[in-house]
């Protein structure tokens, strides 16, 4: 294989490898973000539960205040009963007393209902806090694993970048400029193999003459359809 072409193939593979490191890092971060999202969801549920408990307590307080008011009202009615001067006033007080007692009964029932809700919400809160603790422990473990994995990926990336830099030190500048021009639009497919007599960049079949030149590998050949640099993989590599 032509030396320049061989260098181009190597450079292309280094660039492809370097491009793949960032998705690998993002993939590792995604593992952690899944647990973080679950933890944040649990925190949101905990905050909602606290708000619901506060609301229940507020309603219970209002009912207690109402009960106190009703108690005062019943005491006032009882006092007035001793002062009535006719049957009409007596009946009016009795009706008022009956309504007040119904309101007392309703308020007491409402307090019992609110207490039951409060107990259920407190249990729900404990369960959520337990889940959050478990999730945060998992996050700590995953964080260590992810940090180690990212460190290894960065180390590998540094090694590849170093090897790429060493290759560029002896690279022909004109060939490099030619490669970079194609890479601007072709990205990591600037240099592609030919398989089954087709360019593996645009997947178009190339003619026999061009294919023969690619097989010889004596010169740098561009795909007649898309302009990518073509090469024929070695049989062992292809296998």
Automatic annotation (TrEMBL):
Chain ranges of the CT398-like coiled coil hairpin domain: 28-184
Domain C4-type zinc ribbon: residue ranges: 198-230
Matching InterPro entries: CT398_CC_hairpin, Oxidative_Scav/Glycosyltrans, Zf-RING_7
Coiled-coil residue spans: 67-170
Keyword Coiled coil: yes
UniProt keyword terms in alphabetical order: Coiled coil
Metal-binding is among the record's keywords: no
Source species, domain of life: Bacteria
Protein name stated in the entry: Uncharacterized protein
Organism: Arcobacter arenosus
């Amino acid at each position: 294989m032509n030396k320049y072409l061989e260098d181009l193939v190597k450079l292309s593979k280094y660039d492809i490898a370097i491009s793949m490191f960032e998705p690998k890092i993002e993939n590792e971060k995604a593992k952690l973000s899944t647990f973080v999202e679950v933890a944040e969801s649990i925190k949101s549920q905990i905050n909602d539960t606290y708000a619901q408990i506060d609301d229940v307590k507020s309603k219970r307080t209002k009912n207690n205040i109402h009960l106190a008011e009703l108690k005062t009202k019943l005491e006032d009615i009882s006092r007035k009963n001793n002062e009535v001067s006719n049957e009409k006033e007596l009946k009016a007080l009795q009706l008022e007393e009956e309504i007040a007692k119904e309101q007392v009964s309703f308020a007491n029932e409402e307090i019992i209902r609110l207490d039951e809700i409060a107990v259920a919400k407190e249990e729900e809160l404990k369960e959520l806090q337990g889940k959050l603790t478990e999730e945060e422990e998992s996050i700590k473990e995953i964080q260590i694993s992810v940090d180690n994995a990212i460190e290894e990926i960065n180390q590998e990336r540094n090694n590849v970048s170093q090897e790429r830099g060493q290759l560029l030190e002896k690279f022909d500048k004109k060939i490099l400029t030619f490669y970079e021009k194609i890479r601007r639009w072709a990205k990591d497919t600037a240099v592609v193999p030919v398989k089954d007599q087709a360019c593996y960049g645009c997947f178009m079949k190339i003619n026999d003459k061009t294919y023969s030149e690619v097989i010889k590998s004596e010169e740098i050949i561009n795909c007649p359809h898309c302009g990518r640099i073509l090469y024929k993989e070695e049989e062992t590599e292809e296998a």
